[in-house]
From TrEMBL:
Cell location: Endomembrane system; Membrane
Composition bias, Low complexity: 57-68
Main localization, broad class: membrane
Signal peptide: 1-37
Name of the protein this chain belongs to: Methyltransferase
Positions with biased composition (Pro residues): 47-56
Record GO biological process: methylation
Pfam families, A to Z: Methyltransf_29
Membrane topology qualifier: Single-pass type II membrane protein
Positions with biased composition (Polar residues): 69-84
EC number(s) on file: 2.1.1.-
Length: 634
């Protein structure tokens, strides 16, 4: 047989047979990859939704995603091949039967690089009947949802890595509309020209309002209103400054293209300009001897606070550049720092660039997006919130989210100054705190820094509420309070305390693995929680940390978009990063359990934009989120 085949080929009697075999081999080689790819596609139990258009312009990289709709937002592998369709190309749907043309455009405008749809809806803001209660700093999401892409700023560079970023960030992270030649920048200043806005870095002090009257601009500083002329001619006292500024109003925001006066009074050092960087030495209006000494003074005043053991989860209201929260990281304390987007110009962006947990928010007319009884301690250092406003609703909101037995630290001039205005504020605060059963644990004044503070404690049980002479404010109707803070108005009542409110969580780090007090009473809830913890612990250690090619040293700010019990964050606890645990409002409410574990998080509706600046997070984690969204999500 072999000799016959050899003879046929040698004599070339049947050349068509030779050609046939060559053609057969070629056809088989073409069919094999296609079949293999088809088999792989059939083996995926959770195929991606083919109707979803691309969310961003593809780059010279390929995105790695886990099976079962568990994906990581910033994991890329280098490639010289464009692995996706162009942003202008069509997205195929329904197995190729239909084609939907989606053309993505860049967001336009001078502020497009920092565009936040639900906070920058100027049409809605201008139509507000009142701004008295900070309505203009609350969420006003546009309808329809914008479909433009936020552009990268010109000259964008990779941020300074952690932990160096806590002390310094690149000076061009906030994008200025004017060149440095257009203004004078002292080496150490309390006010910086940032993104065409005047930013006052005096702790939490800032410009409170600006109005145009009689042809001149009036600036409302902490010392009152003054015209531009009087700012030049008058030497202010206290925490006021003598800057000549030229103000131009645009889109409801005041711009300052000129900043120059040589004799600037420098009473706080929150930020220092050094070459191409902003440096954070840890000073501020209330941290005149440094933030670390301030923190140490608090613990000496009230040792029971026990930073990093009893006190683990903190909320810092009106946080400035978050130096307080940043310093507490060394003490195993995690702090959510928040401030409005524009009232504290870009300071939250500073905080996030530093690698410190922060978010944009305001105590206005709506509840904060946290569950009841969440935080171990709340801090306000000249945060400029009128706690007694609107019948005391702002302070009652703090009372709602403060854990029973938790502390509120208030460091502000009404605590330690004796002028009439401050004393009137103090008297109002005394009446309000007594009405909600807060007791003064300590009130002190630090001679070295010439500042004072008062520490209040929330009651451990509802007995004080029941024994008040007047039921004012009244107790809230218990009802179903789960997931109740999303777009919900502030309460004018006190939330009844849980039956087991006298139980404080275990000391850190034991509370991370212990069963949360707020866990559902359903029979299998505890086993579900423990199973979830084991699952993510194994997956992170065996796959995420070593099997995905992630350079974890470059990852600092992380978001878990569908956090469940926070077990993904718990599994990463020994990594030099922090995780914002997001509980979607359409999912089971597990956020209280996350706080019980000593982690941080927030509610959110993924139909809408998140309250943060573009380019905030180094890594986004999503597990079983997108396939569970309702049809209204576009």
């Amino acid at each position: 047989m072999a000799e016959s085949a050899h003879s046929l080929l040698q004599e070339r009697k049947y050349p068509f047979i030779f050609a046939f075999f060559i053609l057969l081999i070629f056809v088989i080689s073409l069919q094999t990859p296609a079949a293999t790819a088809a088999d792989l596609a059939k083996s995926n139990p959770f195929p991606s939704n083919p109707k979803t258009p691309p969310l961003s312009s593809p780059s010279n990289s390929s995105t790695i995603s886990l099976n079962n709709d568990s994906s990581i937002g910033n994991i890329t592998t280098d490639s010289n091949t464009n692995t996706g369709a162009s942003v202008d190309n069509a997205a195929a749907v329904d197995d190729g039967d239909q084609v939907v043309d989606v053309e993505w455009e860049l967001c336009e405008g001078s502020a497009a690089v920092d565009y936040i749809p639900c906070l920058d809806n100027w049409n809605a803001i201008k139509a507000l009947p009142s701004r008295r209660h900070m309505e203009h700093r609350e969420r006003h999401c546009p309808d329809p949802t914008p479909k433009c892409l936020v552009p990268l700023p010109k000259g964008y560079r990779i941020p300074v890595p952690w932990p160096k970023s806590r002390d310094m960030v690149r000076s061009f992270i906030l994008w200025c509309n004017f060149s440095e030649e257009s203004f004078t920048m002292p080496n150490v200043v309390d006010t910086l020209l940032i993104g065409a806005l005047l930013l006052h870095h005096g702790g939490c002090s800032t410009i409170t309002s600006m109005v145009e009257m009689c042809g001149g601009y009036f600036v409302n500083w902490s010392c009152g209103c003054s015209t531009v002329r009087s700012m030049v001619e008058t030497s202010f006292s206290g925490s006021c400054f003598t800057y000549l500024v030229h103000m131009v109003h645009r889109y409801g925001t005041t711009m300052f293209p000129i900043l120059s006066l040589p004799n600037t009074r420098r009473i706080s050092i929150g930020v220092v300009k050094s070459g191409d960087y902003f440096v954070f030495p840890g000073g501020g209006t209330q941290f005149k001897n440094g933030v670390n000494q301030y923190i140490e003074s608090i613990e000496k005043t009230l040792p029971v606070i026990e930073w990093g053991k009893k006190t683990r989860v903190i909320l810092d209201v009106g946080c400035g550049v978050a130096s307080f929260g940043g310093a507490l990281l060394d003490r195993n304390v995690i702090t959510v720092s928040f401030a409005p987007k524009d009232e504290h110009e870009a300071q939250i962006q500073f905080a996030l660039e530093r690698g410190i947990p922060a978010m944009l928010s305001v105590i206005g007319t709506q509840k904060l997006t946290f569950p009841d009884n969440s935080y171990d301690l709340i801090h306000c250092a000249r945060c400029r919130v009128h706690w007694d406003a609107d019948g005391g609703k702002p302070l009652m909101e703090l009372n709602r989210i403060l854990r029973p037995g938790g502390y509120f630290i208030w460091s502000a001039t009404p605590v330690y100054k004796s002028d009439e205005r401050d004393q009137n504020v103090w008297k109002s605060m005394v009446a309000l705190t007594e009405a909600i059963c807060w007791k003064v644990v300590t009130k002190t004044f630090f001679d070295s820094s010439q500042i004072g503070l008062v520490i209040y404690q929330k009651p451990m049980s509802s007995s004080c509420y029941q024994n008040r002479k007047e039921n004012n404010p009244p107790l809230c109707n218990r009802g179903n309070r789960r997931n109740n803070s999303w777009y919900a108005p502030l309460d004018s009542c006190l939330v009844p305390l849980p039956v087991d409110s006298d139980k404080w969580p275990s000391p850190w780090p034991e509370r991370l693995i212990n069963t949360p007090q707020s866990l559902s009473a359903e029979p299998d809830a505890e086993e579900t929680f423990k199973g979830d913890t084991r699952h993510w612990s194994a997956l992170v250690s065996e796959v995420y940390l070593g099997g995905l090619g992630i350079n974890w040293s470059s990852v600092r700010n992380v978001m878990d978009m569908n956090a469940g019990y926070g077990s993904f964050a718990a599994a990463l606890i020994n990594q030099p990063l922090w995780v914002m645990n997001v509980v979607p409002i359409h999912r089971p409410d597990t956020l209280s359990a996350i706080f019980d574990r000593g982690l941080i998080g927030t509610y959110h509706d993924w139909c809408e934009s998140f309250n943060t600046y573009p380019r905030t997070y180094d890594l986004l984690h999503s597990s079983f989120l997108l396939r569970n969204l309702s049809m209204r999500y576009q």
